[in-house]
Structure formats: C-alpha cells, structure tokens
Specification:
The protein is α+β, with helices and mostly antiparallel strands. Helix 13 packs antiparallel against helix 14. It is elongated and about 180 Å long. The chain starts with a helix and ends with a helix.
C-alpha cells in the first residue's frame, strides 16, 4: 500500500467523523425546532378548536423537520464531502499546518498533475505529507461536544413539552391531541350563535294502522313529536349561501348523519321516527369552515300504548255448584284501533285457552257481553278457572300490543263431597243424639251417688246442640225441600236447650218411670223427635240425590240422540268428538250413580223398605258398548246401542223416582198432601187463565174482523202506500256506518231494522193494529238515533262524510216514519168505536173473570205464607205468585178498558208462568246433582257500570226532549232499554 493510498484512507476517516458530528448537531437542532413549533401549534389549536387541517399541518411540520434534519445533517454534507480536495481543505481548516501540503499532495496525486520525469518527486512529497498527517486524531479534528450540547438542548426542549402535556392537559394536552385528531362533522364545524335556517315546514305521515290523516306544520321550531313509525318530511330554507346541508343526529352527532336534497332553494330531509333523539342542522358554505347550530332540536317519539280492557262479572271469585255459563261484560278501548278481543282462561294448571269474542276491525272502542263457558269436559268438581279478557291493537310498527283485564276466578264446587260432608255431619249428630237418648233412658233418678253420668250426658247433649245449630243455619241458607225439616230441627233444638237449662238450675227431677210431664220424659221425647228428623233428612237427601241423577242421565241421553242425528246428517268431525266426550261423561255419571247406590246400601242411610234400588251395571255396560261402537263408526249399531241405553236409563230413572216418591209419601205425608193440594190449585188457576185467554182472543179476532170490514175499501190503497214508505225507510238506512256509531246508536239502529222486518211481515197479512204499534216503536227508535248522531257530530271530533250523509238519511227516514204512523192512525178506527155493546159487555165480563182469578191467586199466596215452612220453597213460590198476580191486574185493567187483544195476550203469558210454577213444585233438587245450565247473570248494580260510557250517554239522551206526540212512548222505550 502506497503513501498516497494511506493518505486517502486518512481523509475517508475524516469524512465519516465530520458527517457524524454534523448529522448529530443538525438533527438535534431540527428536533428542537420541531418540538417548539408543535408546542406553538398545540396552543393555537387549543384556542381555535378541532379543525380538519390540524392533522395535515402537524404532519407537514414533522416532514419538514425530518427533511431539514436529514438533508442538512447528512445528505447534503455527504454529497459535498465526497471529494478528497474538499476534505483536505476541511483538515486544513482544522489543522493549519497541513493546509497547503495536504491539498498539494492530493492535487499532485491526481492523474496528469506531474510530468513524466518527476514521479519520484511526487511520491516523496506524499510520503512526507502522510508522515505529518499520521499522528493526527480525527476525533480531535472533529470533536462531538457541540453536537452533544445540541442533543441535550433538544432533549430538554422535548422534556419541557412533555411536562406541558402533563401539567396543562386542558390547553397543551388538548391542543396536542387536536393536532393529530381528524374531527367529525360536528367537531369540525363552527358553532353558529344565530339561526342557520328558516321557514321550517314539518309534514307527518302517520303509520297506516292509525288511520290518521297527514298533518303539515309551517313555521315549526324544528322539534319533532309524533308516533313511532311516522314518516317525517322536514323542509328548511338556508339563511346563508350553502352548498350542502346535513342533519347531525344525537347530542354530538354520534348517531349518524342524514343527507338532504335541494329542492327549489330549500333543503329537504325524509326519515322515519323510531326512537327519542336530537338533531342539529349542519351547513357547508362555499368558502370557509362549515357551521352547525348551537342548540339541538328534540325528537320525541310517542309509543302506542296497549289497549285498556275492563271486565265485569257477577263476582270476582264465583263459586258454582256445577259448570254453567257466566255472563260477562267487557269494554276495550285503544288509541288507534282494536284488533281481536278474546277470553283467555286456564283450568287448574293446564295450558291457556283462547275464545275469540269479537274482531275490533280497527274500532277505537268496543264493548259487549258474552256467556263464558269453559270446556265442560275439563270442569270436574273442584276445578279452578282463572280467566281474563285480552285485547290486541293493530300496531304493525312496534308489533301488536296486548291489553289485559283483571283476572277473575270460577270455582266449581264438588257437590258430592259437600253432600257427603253434610251427611257425615248428620250421621255423627244422629249417633250423638241416639247415645244421649240411651243414656237418658238408662239414668235412674233414685240414684244420687253418681252425678258424673248425668254430667257426661248433659255435656254430650250441649255439644250436639251446638253442632245442630250450625246444620240448621246451613239448611236454612240452602232453602228447598229441607227447609221444613230445618224448622223441625230448630224447634227441637230450642226445646232441648230449654230443658237443659232448667235441669242445670233445678237438678234432675224424675226419670225412668216418671210421668209424661216429667223433665226426664220430655228430654226423651225431644231427643226422639230430633233423631227421627235427622234420619228423615238423611234419607230424603240420599233418595232425592239418586232421583236427580237419574233425571240427568235421561236428559244426557236425549242430548246424545240429538248429536248423533246431527252427526249422521252432516258427518262433521267436531260433532263426533263431542259425541265421544259426552259418552265418556255419561259413562262417568252412571259409574257415579252406581257408587252412590252401593254407598246407600252399605251405610244404611235409608230404611230397608226403600233399599230396592236399581242395578246400574247394565247401563254402565251399555255406555261402554256405545263408546266402542262410536270409535268404529257403525251408525246402525250406534242407533241400536243408544236406544237400548235409553231404555235402561229410563227404567232406572223410573225406579229411582218411585223409590223417592214412596219414601216421601211415607215419611212426609203432610208435606206431600200440601204439595199436591198446591199443585191442584195452580192447575185450576192455569186452566181458568187459559180459558180466559182463549175467550179474549176470540173477542179480539171479532173486533179485528169488524175493523177489517170498515177498512175494506181503503185497505189496498193504504197497504200499497204503507209498503212504499217502509221500503223508502229501509233504503235510507242501508250502509249504516256502525264503526262510527256509539253503543246507543248501534242499539237504536238494530232496533229500527227489526221494526222494518216486522212491518214487512205485518202489513201483507193486514194486521193493522200490530203494524201501528210497530210503527210507533220505529218512530221512537229513529228519534233516538237522530239525537245520538247529533251529539256525536257536536262532540268536537271531526265526523266523516259517511256519517254526515247518514245523518241526513236518518232525518228523512224519521219524517217518513212519522208520516206512516199518522196514516195508520187515520186509517184505523179506535177499538172503542168499533166494539158493539155486546162486545163491550163481553170484554167487561172477561175483566171480572180475570179479577176473580187474581183474587184466588192472592188468597193462595197468603195461604202459602201462613203455612210457613210447611211447604218446600214456600217463600219463593209466594213471590212468584205475587208477580203473576201483578200481571193479572194489568190484564184485568186492559179488559175493563176494552182492549181484549192486549188482555188476552197477557193472560196467555200468565197461564204459561203458572204451568211452569206447577211443574217446578214437583221437582226434587239435590245438592249432589247437577242443576239447570242457565247463565249466571251480572247483578244489576254491576251491569250498570259496564260499559259506563254507554250508560252515561243513554242517561244524557233521556234528558233530551222528544217530539210532543211521542214523549210517553220515548219514556217507555228508554225504560226498556235500560233494563
């Protein structure tokens, strides 16, 4: 290696050292400048707030600093110091001794710098210069102390900046974050303290199920309030030039952005309201930063509330002795429209079951009544039914919501258990009284050394009397045929209690062998009477219960025959399933009867002479055979098996009735005699009343014939004219807008249509008197319908055009009805003008006959009252006779006044009531058998509240004046309507 090469390597070391020192120094200087500039920018950003240019400006500053540090610190010096001549000058500047020699050596070593004759001279010169340069240290030539100071200065500047971030987070820290944060539209916009838009117009398109019309509000504040699912159209005019407008959702625009479209210099936004929110208007101008509103506009979304449902029943917790329909009243209302209304019930812990009551069809208010009857097959004794009414609305936005009424309960008593409990109580009482009777008979009054025996007997009697008192109260509450026995037991209890008190005060007097009037003998007599009455009571309950079950089985068989006939005619599968259920239920009832017959025989509740009870095994086998044939579907065999089962049940019923009748005839002869006498008198009254009704009907036909003769020349013309007016009225009432009518309006509309139907039947048959009455009722109904529509149109709610048109048609129909009533009134002569003197005399005679029958009815009622408890259900029978007597007096007045048609019709009704009462006197109700299935009705005090709005509307209508000629008829109409 030559001296020139070694000299070049020396210069290369100098170059690297110089580049290091320059890079560190310039880089530190650039870093210090960058930190200072970022600090100033952070303060500025904190003052001006978020902006989209801050990240760009910060990034540019960093790039410039990196460019300065890298370019001036390394790239530019590396390029400049690549020449050895430049490096020689740098060394000469740092070490002046070598300034000229080092540069000369470099220049002499370049190609062509020396002549051909002097190469040795150049080499020698380079060797001399290298010897002078070799001892030099490049670290000394280019020390790093300046660069190190610059690094410390840069580090101190950076540390101060970091401390500023920590100490001043709300100014320096926030500003530093803003430098590198890309702002949202909300953050990047300037806050406008003045309005940005004006002339706001809001248009609401409500969900279709609400049937609400579109609403537009001009000059709105921008706050939105509507039902969930409403489509909103928001129009606004910008108050300054803008190229774009947005709606920023949420308090800080965090919920998103809604675009707008420009239509005729107005920005328009369309969107659906789904939840509570807020929005601000954001405007982007052509120059400068965008601007946003300072305060947000509120979006309030109203949820559709579930329907409100009210339920009224006879009782909240109704206890029934057997399954029966229960009358319910329901009232449902919703803001925008009802869908289905149903009863939901659960029997015990079973699955819920639904019974559809009505389809609301979008009506806002629906009310009605129904007879609720759960599935009878599941209502076994002891069952508990929980039920309520559900109403659904038609909300198709949030989903249909359900309104639920209060939950009510029906409890099915277990009559067999109740009767068995009572019989057990009676059996225990009988045993106690027999024990007391035996002790009394065995007591020796001559012995005074054993008072404990008397005390023990007395205590047992007092205990038995206390239990007997509870039994008597229960029998009295139950009423029926056992009420007379309850009176006998109550009297015996009073007498025995009095004897016990006297005995306690005076001690035992007399006893075995004493006279009839002695206290001991009286004790024995009272105990015997109570024991006999208890035995009679138990026997009657057992025999009546068996007889009642026999009747029920025969009635169930008749129902099966009817169902089978319908099934064979239609082949309906549901009828077949009902047949299967009813056959199984009948089989269970036969098995129950068999168990009760076996219990009667085993427990000896009935004396031996009445123990000739039927064997239910044959009927039970026939029922099982019928069940099997029903599963096979053999119609001919079904008819045969059903007929055989009917014969078996009828035979069993007859035997049970015979046993019960014989038992009562033997053990209760006076009661049987009283009942037979009462039935005979009722039969006489019934026959006389039927004859009276027949005679009155004949007289009425004669009078109608006379009226027809007088009208013969007018009938055809009058009939055609009346028919035309009836059809004209009917045409006016077509298309009744029932959805918009209230409850009273609907009732009146239905009543008027029924009047029209009756008139179409009466007029062709020329029943002019009845047609006139029907016309008067129609006039009243149309007047009430007019008043109802008038109140509804004046209520403040905008009526539809359909309701307005219907109102006009009802007015026209009312005028036609009044004209028809006037025509019929002129056409028909008065009854008193048509009747001949003989007919008047006959009508008066019928009135006297009715007066006589009414007097006999009152005497019979007084006779029943005087007998007290001697006649079963005497109080109920007397009350029924009092009501019948009132009807008789009304018929009597009508006959005296010359109205034989009305009087005879009322007499016919009275005869039917007498027949029904007479039949009821022979019935034998039992706590252990199923009673009639008449619905349990809502009491008047409750029904007057359901629905309350309908009642209030009706009361208001009653206060309004009716036409002068019809005020009395209107009053009667409302009285009937309220019932």
């Amino acid at each position: 290696m030559g001296d020139l090469e070694r000299l070049g390597r020396f210069l290369e070391r100098v170059r690297k050292r110089a580049l290091l020192e320059n890079s560190v120094r310039v880089g530190a200087l650039a870093l210090m400048g960058l930190v200072v500039i970022l600090f100033l920018l952070a303060l500025w950003a904190n003052q001006t707030g978020p902006a989209g240019y801050w990240p760009y400006l910060a990034s540019l500053t960093i790039l410039v600093a990196l460019g300065i540090g890298g370019g001036l610190g390394f790239l530019w010096p590396a390029h400049r110091w690549r020449s050895q001549s430049v490096l020689a000058r740098l060394v000469g500047e740092r070490h002046p001794v070598l300034r000229g020699d080092l540069l000369s050596a470099i220049e002499l070593s370049s190609p062509g710098a020396l002549s051909p004759g002097s190469p040795n001279m150049g080499t020698a010169f380079c060797a001399e210069v290298f010897e002078k340069a070799e001892p030099l240290d490049v670290n000394t030539l280019y020390p790093l102390h300046k660069a190190t100071r610059m690094v410390f200065l840069a580090g101190g500047t950076l540390l101060v900046f970091l401390l500023g971030l920590l100490v001043l987070p709300h100014s320096v820290g926030r500003g530093a974050r803003l430098l590198f944060h890309t702002p949202t539209l909300f953050e990047g916009a300037l806050v406008a303290h003045e309005p940005l838009v004006g002339d706001l117009r809001v248009t609401y398109d409500y969900p279709a199920y609400t049937k609400l019309p579109r609403q537009t509000f001009d000059g709105s504040t921008g706050d939105l309030h509507a039902l969930k699912g409403t489509r909103v159209r928001l129009e606004m005019r910008p108050l300054q030039a803008a190229r774009k407008a947005l709606l920023l959702l949420g308090e800080s625009g965090e919920e998103g952005v809604l675009d707008t479209t420009l239509e005729h210099d107005r920005f328009v936004a369309n969107f659906d309201l789904t939840e509570n929110n807020a929005y601000r208007v954001w405007l982007s101008s052509y120059i400068g930063r965008p601007r946003r509103e300072e305060n947000a506009h509120r979006i309030s979304v109203e949820s559709d509330r579930p329907p409100e449902v009210e339920l009224v029943a006879p009782q909240d917790r109704l206890e029934l002795t057997h399954p029966r329909p229960v009358e319910l009243a329901y009232h449902a209302r919703d803001d925008f429209g009802l869908d289905q209304i149903a009863i939901v019930y659960r029997i015990n812990d079973g699955a819920p079951q639904r019974v559809l009551l009505k389809d609301g069809q979008g009506s806002r208010e629906v009310h009605g009544t129904t007879n609720f009857e759960p599935v009878t097959a599941l209502l076994v004794p002891g069952a508990k039914v929980a039920y309520h009414v559900e109403a659904q609305d038609k909300d198709d936005v949030s989903g249909s919501k359900v309104g639920v009424s209060r939950t009510l309960y029906i409890l099915i008593q277990n009559p067999r258990e109740a009767m068995e409990d009572r019989l057990g109580l009676e059996r225990d009482l009988l045993e106690k009284f027999i024990t007391c009777l035996g002790d009394r008979l065995e007591l020796d009054p001559a012995r005074s050394d054993d008072p404990s025996a008397l005390r023990k007997t007395r205590d047992l009697e007092e205990s038995a009397l206390a239990t007997l008192g509870r039994l008597v109260e229960e029998l009295r509450r139950a009423g029926g045929v056992n009420k007379s026995l309850a009176a006998t037991l109550a009297a015996g209890s009073d007498h025995l209690g009095k004897l016990l008190r006297e005995e306690a005060e005076n001690g035992s007097k007399g006893g075995k062998g004493a006279g009839k009037k002695s206290p001991a003998a009286r004790h024995v007599a009272e105990l015997e009477a109570i024991a006999i009455a208890l035995d009679d009571l138990m026997g009657r309950q057992r025999m009546d219960d068996l007889s009642a079950i026999g009747k029920e089985l025969v009635a169930a068989h008749a129902k099966l025959q009817e169902l089978l006939a319908r099934y064979k005619a239609t082949g309906d599968e549901s009828l077949r399933r009902q047949l299967e259920r009813d056959v199984r239920e009948l089989r269970d009832r036969i098995a129950e009867l068999a168990r009760k017959i076996a219990e009667v025989k085993a427990r000896n509740d009935v004396n031996t002479e009445w123990m000739n009870l039927p064997d239910a095994a044959k009927s039970l086998a026939k029922a099982a055979e019928l069940d099997a044939l029903l599963a096979k579907g053999d119609s001919q065999s079904l008819d045969r098996a059903l007929a055989e089962l009917g014969d078996s049940l009828s035979s069993m019923k007859d035997l049970l009735d015979k046993g019960a009748d014989g038992f009562q005839a033997m053990r209760f002869p006076q009661e049987r005699k009283a009942l037979a006498e009462l039935q005979r008198k009722l039969s006489d009254l019934e026959g006389d009343e039927r004859n009276l009704a027949g005679d009155g009907g004949k007289l009425a036909k004669e009078i109608d014939g006379e009226i027809g003769k007088r009208m013969a020349d007018k009938q055809l013309e009058a009939l055609n004219r009346a028919k035309q007016k009836v059809e004209a009225i009917a045409s006016k009432l077509t298309g009744t807008p029932t959805r918009e009518l209230s409850g009273t309006g609907e009732t009146a509309s239905v009543a008027v249509k029924e009047n029209l139907r009756q008139l179409r039947r009466l007029l062709p048959s020329k029943e002019w008197t009845e047609a006139r009455r029907e016309t008067d009722r129609m006039v009243i109904g149309l007047s009430q319908l007019q008043q109802t529509i008038g109140r509804q149109m004046a209520s403040g709610r905008p009526p539809s055009q359909t309701l307005k048109d219907f109102d006009g048609k009802v007015d026209e129909a009312g005028q036609l009805a009044r004209e028809l009533a006037a025509d019929l009134a002129k056409l028909l002569p008065k009854t008193e003008d048509v009747m001949s003197p003989d007919q008047r005399s006959r009508s008066h005679a019928l009135g006297e006959r009715q007066q006589s029958i009414a007097q006999r009815t009152r005497e019979l009622a007084q006779d029943i009252q005087s007998r007290g408890d001697a006649i079963p259900d005497g109080e109920k029978t007397r009350g029924e006779l009092d009501e019948i007597g009132g009807q008789m007096r009304m018929a009597e007045q009508e006959l005296f006044q010359g109205a034989p048609r009305e009087g005879s019709g009322r007499a016919e009704d009275v005869s039917q009531r007498l027949a029904k009462l007479r039949q009821q006197m022979g019935e034998r109700p039992s706590a252990g058998s199923r009673q009639n299935r008449e619905p349990v009705h809502i009491p008047d005090s409750e029904s007057s509240r359901a629905p309350r709005a309908w009642r209030e509307e009706l009361m208001e209508a009653m206060r309004e004046k009716a036409p002068e000629d019809y005020r009395e008829q209107v009053r009667h109409y409302y009285e009937e309507l309220v019932k």
